[in-house]
Amino acid sequence: MFGYVRINKMDLTFREYEHYKSYYCGLCKYLKENHGEISRLGLNYDITFLIVILSAIYKPKSNIFEEVCIANPFKKKKKLINEITEYAASMNVLLAYYKLEDNLLDDKGIKDILAYNLYKGRLKLAHEKYPHKSEIIKEQMKLLNKLEKEKEYNIDKVSNTFGELMGEVFAYKNDEYEDDLRRIGFNIGKYIYILDAYEDLDEDYKKGRYNPFIEYINEREKLKIKVDKLISTSLGLLALSVDNLKLKVNRGIIDNIVFSGVYLRYKNILEKGSVKNVQ
């Protein structure tokens, strides 16, 4: 789960793409320096979108610089860090930790056990900075696990639970933007959960794991239509909430993600095709 909120690179200008990547690279650097090398394993584009949209709303002062990194030691990359980066990094750590904790309740795989124990030491800082957010994320993950253990096949019920979790993550402050940000996070959460369940159906069936779509294992076309409708509805509501914010900063990047990148990502998975420009 996570990694489904992407850009469509071909529909961005070079400057927009470079700016978008600077948020991602800034988050990567911040995670390493403040939460340790292990924290970068949970780095994903979903949280980058959180930084992009919160930075567009609150317009914090940003530190922008260029430097090389381990991914490409021969070319300097632009990195952008601001107060939103700090918040997003903490949310990234909390989400990754509680997801690993949830994984252990299912598989107890050696990789998850090792990652979980390494992450334990990194949770403290994020939890201390945002104890309320941490507790809500933890409780929502517990509720989600309970529903999965009970084999709840009502997709709205389980996806809404993850949606509420992501709504809390996106609600940065208690202000005039909170309601729209909660709705954005909620619909992103629903989209992520539904698409992840659809993509993992075969593997979950083979391993005897829970999947809310398991009853559709032999009705793929019917499931595809159902998932298409569910995700289209969530993305439509997501777009409405983004429009309500009347953003000007980062608008090209945000529109690209909401109206192109995310759409191509889920359509590609539904059709099991290949969309190389979606990154």
Q: Main attributes?
A:
single chain; 279 residues; mainly alpha; Farnesyl Diphosphate Synthase; two-stranded antiparallel sheet; 10 helices; globular
What do these coordinates show?
This protein has 279 residues and is mainly alpha-helical. The chain has a single domain, classed as Orthogonal Bundle (Farnesyl Diphosphate Synthase), CATH 1.10.600. 68% of the residues lie in helices and 6% in strands. It contains 10 helices and 2 strands. A two-stranded antiparallel ribbon has the order 1-2. The chain is globular.
Summing up helix and strand content along with how strands pair, one would put the structural category as: mainly alpha
What is the count of distinct domains?
1
- In the CATH scheme, the class would be Mainly Alpha
Strand content bin: 5-15%
Provide the low-confidence segments as ranges: 273-278
Question: How many beta-strand segments?
Answer: 2
Query: Which value, in Å, is the CA radius of gyration?
Result: 18 Å
Can you tell me the CATH architecture? Orthogonal Bundle
Fold topology:
Elements (H helix, E strand, L loop, with lengths): L13 H22 L9 H14 L4 E7 L2 E10 L1 H24 L3 H20 L1 H19 L5 H16 L7 H22 L1 H7 L12 H25 L6 H21 L8
Antiparallel strand pairs: 1-2
Characterize this entry briefly.
By secondary structure, this protein is mainly alpha-helical. It has helices at 14-35, 45-58, 83-106, 110-129, 131-149, 155-170, 178-199, 201-207, 220-244, 251-271; strands at 63-69, 72-81.
